[in-house]
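Hi C.,

You asked whether I'd gotten around to modeling the 171-residue construct. I have! Everything is below, sequence then structure, no commentary in between.
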Amino acid sequence: MKVLVCIAPENYRDEELEEPLSVLEEHGIGYVIASVKPGTCTGMLGGAAEASVGFEDVTPADFAGIMIVGGIGAAESLWGNERLHSLVRSFHEQGRVVAAICLSPVVLARAGILRGVKATVFRTPASVSEMKAGGAEVVDAPVISAGRIVTAHGPDAALAFGREIVSKLEY
């Protein structure tokens, strides 16, 4: 079992990548890191991660779920990425786990899978507006699950986010 982990090429939130990955590893769940294009991605706190694949080269059937990491880079590089929106819709339509943390739940809203769904997001005027425009019922909670959709509000929820993803994968 593998999870597709999506990060911005610059300014992803380090702990929102590292902490959920540690939970996946703890449970023997593999993952592949993807971004706008393959290569080294940089975190807001100075970390680095290697994206082995670009979004264009991902086959959803190869993965049990998709996890989208937040940080200010999510707004800059992921919110408007049509290929990522398409991947999110594909994972959702196939009944796979779709998870996003911090600013990245906006990607789910823009992909059209949050209409009428309770979800959380790191609250900024832009993120809340985007979530509502996508039809989400925005809830102020660290982690929210709605079926196989998992959203979390920020770095302090990263471990709980990872655990919730694992619980949905093993469901």
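If it helps when you're writing up: The chain has one domain: 2-169.

Thanks,
B.
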